[in-house]
Write a structure and sequence with these properties.
Elements lengths: L2 H4 L28 H22 L5 H19 L15 H29 L7 H25 L9 H21 L14 H22 L1 H16 L14 H8 L8 H22 L2 H13 L5 H17 L2 H18 L4 H14 L10 H9 L3 H7 L1 H22 L12 H5 L6 H11 L4 H16 L8 H35 L1 H15 L1 H16 L4 H11 L1 H6 L4 H14 L8 H10 L3 H11 L2 H11 L9 H23 L8 H16 L2 H19 L14
Amino acid sequence: MSRQQEGQKPENDMIIADGVDSDVVEPSRRVFAGWQWWLFAIMAVAYTSFHLISLNVYPIETWTFRILHVCGALILGFGLYTGARFAENGHQLSPRWLDGLAAVLLLPALYALVQVFVMRQTMAGGAMRIDPTVETWHFGTPLIAATVGAIVLSWLIRRPRGSLPIAELVLMVCAAAASSYLLLMFNSPLRASTGTAFAPIGISWAAIAGSLLILELTRRVAGMALVVISAIFIAYVFAGPFLPGFLGYPGLTLNRFFSQVYTDAGVLGPTTAVSSTYIILFIIFAAFLQASKVGDYFVNFAFAAAGRARGGPAKVSIFASGLMGMINGTSAGNVVSTGSLTIPLMKRVGYPGRSAGAIEAAASTGGQIMPPIMGAGAFIMAEITGIPYTEIAIAAIIPAILYFASVYFMVDFEAARKGMRGMTRDEIPKFSKLARHVYLFAPIIILVAALFMGYSVIRAGTLATASAAIVSWISPNKMGPAAILRALQLGGTMSIQIIAVCACAGLIVGVIGLTGVGARFSSLLLGLAGVSQLLALFFAMLISILLGMGMPTTAAYAVAASVVAPGLIGIGIQPLIAHFFVFYFAVVSAITPPVALASYAAAGISGDNAMGTSVASFKIGLAAFIVPFMFFYSPAMLMEGSALQIARVAVTATMGIVLLSATVQAWFFGPVKAWQRVVMFLGALCMIYGGIYTDLAGIAIAAALIILQRRGRNGDDKPGVATT
């Protein structure tokens, strides 16, 4: 059953959230019916309501809030995502004795959970700490046995899509047990002992179980790439003392490491801090836009504005995917949600499947660098660097314009070269009709205005979410109480993927911080900078892309910011420039071969080869691989400098992007000869570079090429055919 078909069962099936398509990342979402649907719907509504209340009305202690945030995602995630393929499409049901074995594992899981309440009573009676023997044999051992056993069984058990295997229930109980113990200990004076030899051994057992559960849920919702990278980093903790050179370090014991990795030094650190506040808030906002049909209005408006231009659906894809991707927070998820509409339309007007998928992948990826939300990247950057959010959002304006200008002109020149048409008047919504509902842009306007008026991100996001519901009351799609609850449910299911990914990234960040490998990597970059700063930047680019391959944007940036950014700052680059450099390459890893999640998702819709689509999307997003280097050579791109410098760099860099697009597509005002493409590429680099003399040289080259084309130097070439 396809994802779209599942989404057509609103009455009896769990709402299918926008995310990575099940054909791209297995295992798939489970769709329930009957009382199970109501149970998980209520759980999802309670989960999102808990966040809204805690963030706006009744704040709770930070670590407690984050533990509950991760725990809730684990419980919902194991219910909605299967550990193995479903028993459909030729797959047979697994033997029933596996369910019996899972039922046996439910006993130690429940025993560990009960022991937490026994420990709570013991400490309430005046005990300073729990006997380590009790923690190990009555809590840790049954918890680890149940966790490991249930994870393995979940890989083997195959059941129909609508059923919940007992193994998944065991994992939910294990998540509750581990989180309950951590809540108990972290709300006592023993919290101060984490990371020392005096830390209760139970914290380590709970952290090991919690880490295994996070890794397993991440495998289910985001694939193996991030899990493998996390496993390598965790293995480094214990293998590091035996490694030579800069990789070696003194070492950490199992108890010291795991008692600290599930604190704000790791899992509960910056990545979970952002996912538990800003990210989930904007996921709820996106859910309200979807439930109120305001998001559909954005797409229809883009069709009305650009649909009739040559290659119209591709240009619609740029605007719609950029806007929704900014809020969505995941490149591959945005490809699935908007690409299912735009890719078939692009193919209808003449784009090959590969080009259609590549355009959608590049546009959806660009949403992650579009202010003000930047797919939550701006909030993570603010959390890590301490730079005010508004300063980050303003700095992102010119780079975002350059990226989308590049994609737009790539599309436009390809459409001109291939003689493509736009959509007919009958195929697009009437602009005059849409103009009467322009007030549906109010949630976005309120969000941006509130942020720049000085409201906190949480307050601004809450106001924008509320406005989406209020605006719907004067639109054809009014949101009543049932629709609001449905939006809260949708927000809960949509949030699982990104929360799991952020928690998993926290494991990696914890390893980097606790072992000091990030500092040693910084010294390596510093050594390279002594030879050449450009070489150091190039090396940092490769590492950022490598760390980001196969990972969602949020996790990719969080890991790269811990490993690469400190090294760039160490060689004299300003923190804002260093983090933007890392952030850009973490984002474009989604369209960089050989592991390009956004391109793979687009290929699944277009029906073309995944690797070919990733190469094509890499070509369309080429500007994103050049512009970050210009941050270092021309800080005015990030609004660093006088107004005149910023304006000059913005204009000339945009002109350079146009030339770069023309170079790639072999079309400017007409077909472009091979030698002209070489000259055009040099002119593009000169203007993107940002220096006064290089800008003048680039402008001279562009003017000469325009004159050549206008004079008909290529007049013998037939329209629609490129000369190479």
